[in-house]
Amino acid sequence: MKVIFIAIVLLGVLIVAFGSPLAGEKPVRKHYYEAPDVILPMSFAHIDHVAVNCVDCHHNFIDDTGGGLCMTCHVTNQDVWPLLENQFHDLCRGCHAEKAAEGIAGGPPRQCMACHTGDDLP
Amino acid sequence: MTALSATFACVFLVTFLAAPTMGAGWYWDAGNALGFAAFAGLIYLTITSSRRLDVRAHQVLGYGVLLVATSHAFWFMLGDAAAVEFMKLGAPDYMWHGIVSFLLLGFLITVALVPDRFRLHRNYPSFKYWHRLVAIVTIGTATYHIVVSNFYLGAWYQALLFSMLAIATSSGGRWWARFGQMPLAKTGVYIAFSLAAAIVFAAIRNLPA
């Protein structure tokens, strides 16, 4: 049993290190948006979110916390950068989960690969 | 069978108290249901070990729980290319708690077997004390993994009830002993329960109303 368990753990370590042979293309961590550390690619299509009020995400339009794109602050501001993962997960996943709870087809509330694919969407 | 059914019911019903039909797709929900089934197995093993124990049945059922926990972990690692990124350095702490819980479960099972048990413990009371202590830490880390990931226990009362379930399991040994010697379910029955629970859990959340 001990040998089997060690083999399972080693297999898990190999999958984490080299990726799953079954899962298709693996997202590549890079310095996207000139982030100070490597991050996962993210997918966001404005065209799929036209029903959402702009300021629900672009809070800086009304709270005077800066201008430009989300990533202008969220990867360059030293106070905000460490919170990137939590803030974006809470915002995106929270909104999608709310929609799903209301029975509205609102996109992926949880799956990792549903968002962590790079894209050139508008 | 009654105790196993009650354990599965308690664990899974808490997840349905808020937003019971909110699904994330068959694949994602079924994989997470296997995790809940592993947690149910873990607390079932704990509450049924409050009195004199059929050691062999407890041990074999432990293998079953480890198998279901392994299925939960590898389900995501093999099927979602981004999920493994949340098992690396910098991953959210709730993922680290899940990994630690899985490793502790494996440790708990493998070193409980002779001859490793004799190497680590001079007598049975010492083994029993440490085995129970590691089991409690395993339940604690698994509870943190489930509650803080916030996927199915989004309402505060769900998190509270789930945590109370874990605390009652871990600290209520004398109370559980009042139920007398509960016969342990066979491993095959537990695995069948787990598969059925995974299908029902995913179906409720993903079949059109």
Please give a structural write-up:
The complex is a heterodimer of chains A (122) and B (209). By secondary structure, chain A is mainly α. With 209 residues, chain B is mainly α. Classes of the chains: A mainly alpha (122), B mainly alpha (209).
Features:
heterodimer; A: 122 residues; 0% strand; B: 209 residues; mainly alpha; 9 helices
Offer a concise description of the structure:
The complex is a heterodimer of chains A (122) and B (209). Chain A is mainly alpha-helical.
- Helicity range of the residues of chain B? over 70%
Task: Report the β-strand fraction of chain B as a percent range.
Answer: under 5%
Name the biggest interface.
A-B, 33 and 35 residues
Give the integer mean of the pLDDT values of chain A.
83
Main sheet makeup of chain B: none
Ends of chain A: how far apart? Answer: 53 Å
Number of strands of chain A: 0
Helical segment tally of chain B?
9
Structural class of chain A: mainly alpha
Structural class, from helix and strand content of chain B? Answer: mainly alpha
Extract low-pLDDT stretches of chain B.
none
Number of strands of chain B: 0
Shape summary of chain A: globular
Oligomeric category: heterodimer
SS strand fraction of chain A: under 5%
Gyration radius over CA of chain B: 17 Å
Order of helices and strands of chain A: HHHHH
Our measurement of the CA-to-CA distance between the termini of chain B, rounded to an integer number of angstroms, reads: 31 Å
Radius of gyration of chain A: 18 Å
H/E element sequence of chain B? HHHHHHHHH
Largest sheet of chain A: none
SSE topology sketch:
The complex is a heterodimer of chains A (122) and B (209).
Chain A: H1 2-18, H2 54-57, H3 60-63, H4 70-74, H5 84-101
Chain B: H1 2-15, H2 26-47, H3 55-79, H4 93-110, H5 116-120, H6 124-149, H7 156-171, H8 173-177, H9 187-206
